[in-house]
Fold N-acetyl-gamma-glutamyl-phosphate reductase.
Amino acid sequence: MTTATEVKTELTATTGGVRTALAGVSGYAGGELARLLLKHPRLQETRPIFIGREATTLSELQPHLYAIDEQELPVVPYPTWSELKAAGVEIIFLATPHEQSREWVPQILNAGLRVVDLSGAWRLKSASNRAVYKLHDADAELAAKLDAEAVFGCPELHHDAIRNARLVANPGCYATSIILALRPLVAAGLVDIEHGIVCDAKSGVSGAGKAPTAKTHFMHAADNLSAYAVFGHRHTGEVLEQVGLPAEALQFTPHLLPIPRGILSTIYLRLKSRMDKAAVEQVFREFYAGHPLVRIFKAGSLPQIQYIVRTNYCDLGFELAADGRRMVLVSCLDNLLKGAAGQAVENMNVMCGWKEEEGLL
Amino acid sequence: MTTATEVKTELTATTGGVRTALAGVSGYAGGELARLLLKHPRLQETRPIFIGREATTLSELQPHLYAIDEQELPVVPYPTWSELKAAGVEIIFLATPHEQSREWVPQILNAGLRVVDLSGAWRLKSASNRAVYKLHDADAELAAKLDAEAVFGCPELHHDAIRNARLVANPGCYATSIILALRPLVAAGLVDIEHGIVCDAKSGVSGAGKAPTAKTHFMHAADNLSAYAVFGHRHTGEVLEQVGLPAEALQFTPHLLPIPRGILSTIYLRLKSRMDKAAVEQVFREFYAGHPLVRIFKAGSLPQIQYIVRTNYCDLGFELAADGRRMVLVSCLDNLLKGAAGQAVENMNVMCGWKEEEGLL
Amino acid sequence: MTTATEVKTELTATTGGVRTALAGVSGYAGGELARLLLKHPRLQETRPIFIGREATTLSELQPHLYAIDEQELPVVPYPTWSELKAAGVEIIFLATPHEQSREWVPQILNAGLRVVDLSGAWRLKSASNRAVYKLHDADAELAAKLDAEAVFGCPELHHDAIRNARLVANPGCYATSIILALRPLVAAGLVDIEHGIVCDAKSGVSGAGKAPTAKTHFMHAADNLSAYAVFGHRHTGEVLEQVGLPAEALQFTPHLLPIPRGILSTIYLRLKSRMDKAAVEQVFREFYAGHPLVRIFKAGSLPQIQYIVRTNYCDLGFELAADGRRMVLVSCLDNLLKGAAGQAVENMNVMCGWKEEEGLL
Amino acid sequence: MTTATEVKTELTATTGGVRTALAGVSGYAGGELARLLLKHPRLQETRPIFIGREATTLSELQPHLYAIDEQELPVVPYPTWSELKAAGVEIIFLATPHEQSREWVPQILNAGLRVVDLSGAWRLKSASNRAVYKLHDADAELAAKLDAEAVFGCPELHHDAIRNARLVANPGCYATSIILALRPLVAAGLVDIEHGIVCDAKSGVSGAGKAPTAKTHFMHAADNLSAYAVFGHRHTGEVLEQVGLPAEALQFTPHLLPIPRGILSTIYLRLKSRMDKAAVEQVFREFYAGHPLVRIFKAGSLPQIQYIVRTNYCDLGFELAADGRRMVLVSCLDNLLKGAAGQAVENMNVMCGWKEEEGLL
């Protein structure tokens, strides 16, 4: 439990450095984000403010953070956004359900705070893609403006827009793994879009959330593999918009892996014309020059989930058929880090003018 | 869904062989029991009747039984016990919560059926041991009589009583693994009881039941190990009563293993006087002669969970210290088979005068 | 150890029923095959003869078979094929490396035995596809004749040829899962072959064999996923030949799953023209009518590895995009059973005129 | 590959801060140690020198360290100890087999370097306990002197001796978990030693080493649990010596858990006289005051492996029976960190006068 005095102390304005707040600290992504923020070198002067429905402590919600949280860090029951602003908060992270984020963001921006939203509420530019989230807006006109204003928080693609953004929509985990793999080739006009692209993606169970369900029961997930949401996963829209693809060009099938965390996407495409491996590798290396959190594997070796679990890297590798056109791309990342909390910190870094990788290596 | 016609068909009396019914087919033990009954060589003429709260089908509740259940086997909404009797049912299996079993058993016996109850409701002879289940009896006097009458369904210990029993209380999973390991040595008066016995037991997640909870979430159970119910697990009373031990002689600590099924109990005791390995092995071999579902390992090799998963065996092995007195016993079984559904079938076999292992190898 | 007397006893001719022999009982597929043969209802009169490099016992090589092997079943050091024939053996199973099978099969056939070979030695009709195995034949002419004579042991495709075959080449595990999924649609001329087919397949670790390697080390396989043999897996040729596809039409990528057993193949294709789900389902149902070991899922529900592990089923399901042309097929089987040992028994059943599923449900 | 120029560069003396070297970087503990040293805040000026049998690179031996190792850190073929000394190395870590460590340590000390040895070569004070390692010394007299001089590298027990030690013997993983749990109670004279203590310990597969063996094969370790080395594990001597127990007082049984890393030890003992929980907790808190890497759980909650995996903590918790005497202690740590590489860094920290936890939180 957090006492009234502790709440007051938390909400007292501080002078040093950038201050952050985090709503939604009880889930997996929120827990990882709390951990990253607490040890971030730029945030040592002013601890993040954790806010939640009820007064509690961080280690109550995330027992494995007991390590960091020796002082029983308070979780403050929802203050007003103005109180957070008055306490010196500049950036607030929302690791909340998309309905909640959709409702809160206009208020938060109005209070003068910047937001990194980890939900799907503000990621999509096209209304038809957004339909999958069944969003209800109190002020539809304002929401439409914010939809247009929101920056898709993929720092490797939108660094400069993120630098000045008020509202950053942190990408989905599957979407990040696929967008980072496809964007360099598609942007260079190398891919036979008409032929279509197959994305066969596999994710660990943390991607299914913390709520205990029949699907997340150990007896269902362990020693198993299953495909789901075939032709209908919510992250499809993000990939289409960010890579620049027509809907019929992408076939995306997610699978539930019997492991705690990690995503591996196997992507099948055809190049418009014959290329050799070195040239393809070069396209990737140039695209991600200056972005150390995307690692390009040498042609002939492929990423594996083990290499990226508990890191903030996205690893990319590929194989090319003898015809120099059929290509298999493999993209790996940790769904809770580069696919969620780590990318959120990366966005904060960019928003503050720090290096993308600060606090993430 | 099961139709009224199907229900009527199910409840029509048949002429061939022994007929059984099963309540509680939705859980893990119930599912295994359904599977075993459906392929039991003695039950091929008259299929078991599955009963449940709502009309449904077996494969709806247990998708992996779709194999056996090509005809969409009906689950019949609770009939009366007399209807079951009239349909020719002789033995009913209850894989239901203990409160339910406690309420139903007097009615079922009254209707002239025999029962194998898989819950903890009727296992304990001592009222103080029973207290842990917080049982409420409509007719306390009758319940006390039935407590006295109930036979603890461990065929290796109580074969003859089970043969004629109306009410068989199928043992707990941990209890089975510990009782089968300890009983031969204690019964022979070889164990230094006063010194005390330590049972460090480890079970797969299916032992925690099918309900999705924080504890059974893949993210909690996987890559983890935890002790629980230290000094307070419900199965303790069964061990004390069946092995014949005073309460202070037994320290039993269960642990949750990151595997679907299987129990391994490591048991530490002292012999009253020095013995050699061959003599100890002989005690076990003689005790279990004629009981092929308990396998004795040669001194120097130990059981492992892998050897017994998906079998109805209980494997026993041991090591003896150089002093010839300190002993480590290792006992392994599949908690859903020898620790639950398989042992229930074994009890049915004995009740019907068949071989213990029939349909179980 | 197996004594000379035991060897002699094993090789004594018996009178009852069909007799079998098995070479290569030490591996995973060989162990499963031993288990299936020992409990096969048609083989109860005359136990299979297990042969190997050295005299030993079955439970020495396969400790988990200790259950079945109470009598310490002997493994006989390689007898001559004539000795096996004289002992009444009709069918010999080879669960040996492909070089070994390639060398032995001509000798075995010459001795008048029939063979089910579980290796890749005799599966491929096209010499160029066969090149991947780097086979060396003592008598190239004879080998070519046998290549032509060998029947690809997929009972659902080649029942009648298997019935009379001397040499049955048991299919690869991945190949079985893909062939059974694709053959009905391709045979009916429904698939847009020119567009190409993507097979993204995932297999448990038992598929990588029993030899301890860096790849099969628990620390590498657990909590991981990796793609391998991209554009170059040996099973590709089987799929091309049996489904009837040109090489460039198939992109097959296998992955190593962190589970002991089970294969799930996710297959992406386009139909030549628009179809509805019911029509597609009907194609599958008709193709596999009378073949109970292939189960067709209702449109809208998909197979999972959990449903088929430790069974001999191949489960098939699919989803169709709104355009009625883009299709995702999911095919699941246990790589050691329907993908190896179980299918070998199925072949024996057909060779002997028994039902495909005998001893396999 | 590492070139001659790179080797020369590595072995050039530097001026800034403490310099370290590490032999044995190919194994699991060595890999973790490399990772920890590379990111240690006190070692940023002068990178550790990695030495090995052959010239290679760190990421060749430890692909998951590719992240840190962008510059392809060289592994230098064994230089002489004097060359290391001349290059400014003060402390050398040996993550080598115990025979190797036994041979090298006298030479290394002679060259004026300090050593942290992760093997079992120098941990034991009693020659009879040491016998289990079958050590052969070129100079037995010198070896005996060094056996006496070596400091058991448990900073929570021997901080001051480690501060000035030339030779620190880094404790075994199981031993660390048991010693830290037992020492406070035994040192305070609270434990009924004569009654005996049972340590039932369970470890992840990384404890079995990187060599692929039948035991470490995924198919053996996964979904399994097995006891091993009953009455004969090598770490027993460390526990006896460091806790201060006669041999017959300790029964220690290790088990192989189906998880990559983590140890949980369940320890059963009797107190000499009745105590309450608060008093027991106080004993632990006082003993470990000022040692933040040992965390004491509040009475009533117990450590789990999940809380300590990939941390350098040892978590301790306990339950007390109603009699106030029978106690169950639970101790958890990561066998590669607090049980090996992390504790080695902790020892370096103490040797250099830094805080125990520096670079480890």
